[in-house]
Design brief:
The complex is a heterodimer. By secondary structure, chain A is an alpha/beta fold. Chain A has 14 helices and 9 strands. In chain A, the strands form 3 sheets. A 5-stranded parallel beta sheet of chain A has the order 2-1-3-5-7. Chain A has a two-stranded parallel ribbon with strand order 4-6. In chain A, strand 8 and strand 9 form a beta hairpin. The model of chain A has no long low-confidence stretch (mean pLDDT 90). By secondary structure, chain B is mainly alpha-helical. Chain B has 2 domains: 179 residues, no CATH class; 208 residues, no CATH class. Chain B is 65% helix and 0% strand. Chain B contains 17 helices and no strands. In chain B, helix 3 crosses helix 6. The mean pLDDT of chain B is 89. Classes of the chains: A alpha/beta, B mainly alpha. The interface between A and B is medium-sized, with 15 and 15 residues. Chain A: This is SGNH/GDSL hydrolase family protein. Chain B: It is a multi-pass membrane protein. Chain B: Belongs to the membrane-bound acyltransferase family.
């Protein structure tokens, strides 16, 4: 029963239309993308690629994944390279994730159907103590990651249901605001360093990809705002947008912009790219 | 140790093999093994609280022996009081101390006074409400001379701590369970098979129904202020099935596991959501606790004897105590009070014993009147669950206010990236399975049981919740 279910799920995920950003990258081949945005939901819900494309005239994709951590960004870069996708500049959203070197559950969920792919296999093997169970116990990976890969996703893949957002753009807007008087807090300490960032820089350099780090906006009532200056000491070329908007109307919650805020922010990023290109 | 965990998956076959292969026909050895296994099972969760079970066991064992030795009523009564004070004292300290202290401080603050009394950081030992009630039933029954005390400490200790039902029941009576430790148990494949069927069905109720509902319930109750009426309605509906699947699932697991060792535990749930009135609901929901309160609280208070006012008073006392038994929170008291309110009209009109048989035994579907009765009863019960699920009374009232004032019944996308009505199909399938099997102990029994069991296992694998599985709700009680 387990072998049969494993075979069925793996086959369906391999043959269905892409429904998440990992499977979307795997469906691409030998393309050129000018600007790739990597990050967590603070990119996924914040960077409207269409706005940046219309201003810069360049090809842009938002590859932010909800809950993603820095290690996931590195994997995304490796996957892009694996699919022979050339990238000019990668924009990496960084904030409190600097303090974390782990991988996210959601990103790992998306990898599971492809655990027999050599790149993904070696990535999981280096990071997950359950690697052998995930790879060799039939159907185990789909049970462990059932929230994202369970029957619901399996069924949606069979019927070819498109995801709620356009994968070619990658932007998933949030509408409205969950409440008034938004509040949030950044960490009051910063790690000495983050080895994954060094790896990302090294990997990008080998592929001749420019890396640009930025910090997306937080609402005005954010505690420990000086975290951005601490982060700038670690990443000198960091572009700090953390206090770009002072009004709560731009926010869905304190750490996520709503659609109105995301569009404004994307415009600002686009104009900064143009300015930088003109200076160069 | 959870029934739906890897350690238990290793633990159970080991104990089962030792029990039937090594210690077969050795009654004392089997009872000793069950006792050790039960202590390991409990200690796996928190070994520090094993001492409480041992102490409770010793006190009630000695009280039972002394009651047998002394025949003077005065001494026997004192011994009964000792047992009551000890067991209820344990509950009072571990479960209710902070509740009463905090309520006292709030009350005197209301009248403008200050209090320096502060609450303590007390951890609630898992299953304390269950095993204390079980041992209490022993001493009360010995006092009332309904049963004779046991002279075998191993048997008694195994009865108190019997691992299948130790942490969340069913709460067994000494008269029903204790004698089973004294008779020789022989391996019967048919009985073991029926135990396995119950285990599989219990896992389905827990992992497919309860845990799926929990994902939605948690998302809705944690963000109720921003959701529309339909989502709030679904929140109450899903919690009704979460708590049913969770607790009935646990009970079936417990009964099934006990059966694998040759023990018969009482049925704890009997298709309660097909009840036609609240009185029938309480004859089908958490039967072991309901009958406990009936026998040890309601009847000693006078029960159905005396005037209607006295009967209503007794009903309110039982439901308030039942609410308090569930937890030290005003929400549980209100939940109990609501059920007393729902029950009272039936009592006044002598309708509380009207529906004592299984609904629609001869035909497939209920008639319109029965449908209205079932839906009405379910709605009342689900409404009361809002108090049971809420963290505090303020949250309950805000939730209910949102439910009845928002009037927006659009399908809503929740923070868990699922639509609020998505689980309806799964719950409908569950209800159909239950309806078709309402005259059976569980749906896997009867003809084609292997095929039914394969189907249920397949459903557990495909629809079960693994990454976000929840603890059994009743462990906290």
């Amino acid at each position: 029963m387990l072998f049969l279910l494993d075979y069925l799920y793996t086959s369906v995920y391999a043959k269905s239309i892409p429904r998440n950003k990992i499977s979307y990258i795997r469906s691409l081949n030998e393309e050129f993308i000018d600007y790739v945005f990597l990050g967590s939901s603070r990119v996924h819900n914040t960077i409207d690629s269409d706005v940046i494309e219309s201003i810069t005239g360049k090809k842009v994709i938002n590859l932010g994944i909800q809950g993603a951590k820095i290690d996931d960004y590195l994997l995304m870069l490796k996957l892009l390279n694996n699919q022979k996708i050339k990238v000019k500049t990668v924009f990496i959203q960084i904030d409190y994730v600097f303090n974390n070197e782990g991988t996210s559950m959601i990103s790992k969920s998306y990898l599971m159907p492809y655990i027999r792919d050599s790149l993904i296999s070696s990535h999981i093997k280096e990071r997950d103590l359950d690697y052998y169970k995930l790879k060799f116990i039939p159907f185990y990976r789909y049970l462990v990651y059932d929230y994202k890969l369970g029957f619901r996703e399996f069924f949606n893949s069979i019927i070819g249901k498109k995801p709620k957002f356009n994968l070619e753009n990658g932007y998933n807007p949030l509408f409205g605001s969950i409440n008034t008087n938004l509040k949030s807090s950044l960490p009051d300490y910063i790690k000495k360093d983050n080895k994954i960032i060094l790896e990302i820089n090294k990997f990008a350099k080998e592929l001749n990809i420019e890396v640009s780090y930025f910090m997306a906006p937080f609402c005005f009532n954010t505690a420990n705002k000086d975290f951005s200056s601490k982060l700038k000491e670690k990443i000198p070329n960091l572009i700090d947008y953390s206090q770009l908007f002072l009004e709560d109307t731009y926010f869905f919650n304190c750490s996520h912009l709503n659609d109105k805020g995301a569009k404004e922010f994307s415009k600002r990023v686009a104009f900064d790219i143009l300015k930088k290109n003109q200076n160069n | 140790m959870l029934f739906n965990s890897i350690p238990f998956l290793v633990f159970l076959p080991i104990v089962f093999c030792l029990y039937w292969l090594v210690l077969n026909n050795k009654l004392t050895g089997q009872n000793l093994l069950l006792l050790i296994a039960s202590y390991v099972f409990y200690g796996w969760w928190d070994y520090r609280f094993l001492g409480l079970i041992v102490l409770s066991t010793l006190v009630d064992f000695v009280v039972g022996l002394l009651m047998n030795r002394f025949h003077k009523e005065k001494i026997r009564k004192r011994l009964l009081w000792l047992s009551l004070l000890f067991n209820l004292g344990l509950l009072g300290v571990f479960k209710y101390f902070n509740f009463f202290i905090e309520s006292w401080v709030e009350a005197i603050k209301y009248f403008g006074f200050k209090s320096d009394v502060s609450s303590l950081n007390i951890i609630l030992p898992v299953g304390i409400s269950f095993y204390t009630f079980q041992t209490l039933s022993y001493t009360i029954d010995v006092y009332n001379k309904k049963i004779k005390p046991t002279f075998n400490l191993i048997d008694f200790a195994a009865f108190v701590s019997f691992f299948p039902q130790l942490v969340a029941g069913p709460i067994e009576r000494a008269s029903q369970l204790l004698p089973q430790f004294k008779i020789k148990r022989t391996f019967d494949f048919t009985v073991v098979k029926s135990g396995i069927h119950l285990i599989v069905w219990g896992l389905f109720q827990k992992m497919v129904i309860a845990d799926s509902c929990a994902t939605y319930t948690n998302a809705i109750f944690s963000n109720y202020e921003n959701l529309n009426s339909l989502s709030l309605l679904m929140g109450g509906f899903y919690f009704a099935f979460q708590i049913y699947g969770d607790f009935a699932g646990y009970s079936n697991l417990a009964i099934g596991i006990a059966r694998m060792f040759g023990f018969n535990l009482m049925i704890n749930f009997n298709y309660p959501y097909f009840s036609r009135d609240v009185a029938e609901f309480w004859r089908r929901w958490h039967i072991s606790l309901t009958t406990w309160f009936r026998d040890y609280v309601y009847i000693p208070l006078g029960g159905s004897r005396g005037s209607k006012q006295q009967q209503i008073r007794n009903v309110f006392i039982v439901f308030f105590v039942s609410g308090l038994w569930h937890g030290a929170n005003w929400t549980f008291l209100i939940w109990g009070g609501l059920h007393a309110l729902f029950f009272t009209p039936l009592l006044v009109l002598n309708l509380n014993k009207k529906n004592t048989t299984t609904i629609v035994t001869n035909k497939g579907l209920p008639n319109p009147k029965e449908i209205i009765q079932i839906v009405g009863t379910f709605s009342l019960v689900s409404f009361s669950w809002i108090f049971f699920r809420s963290k505090n009374l303020s949250e309950s009232f805000k939730y209910i206010n949102g439910l009845f004032t928002n009037f927006n019944f659009k399908i809503e996308y929740l923070s868990i990236e699922r639509y609020n009505i998505e689980l309806l199909l799964l719950i409908s399938v569950f209800l159909i399975i239950e309806w078709v099997n309402r005259n059976n102990e569980h749906p896997i029994s009867g003809k084609l049981s292997y095929i039914k069991m394969t189907g249920i296992i397949l459903m557990i694998l495909v629809f079960g919740v693994y990454s976000d599985h929840q603890n059994f709700i009743y462990f906290q009680f």
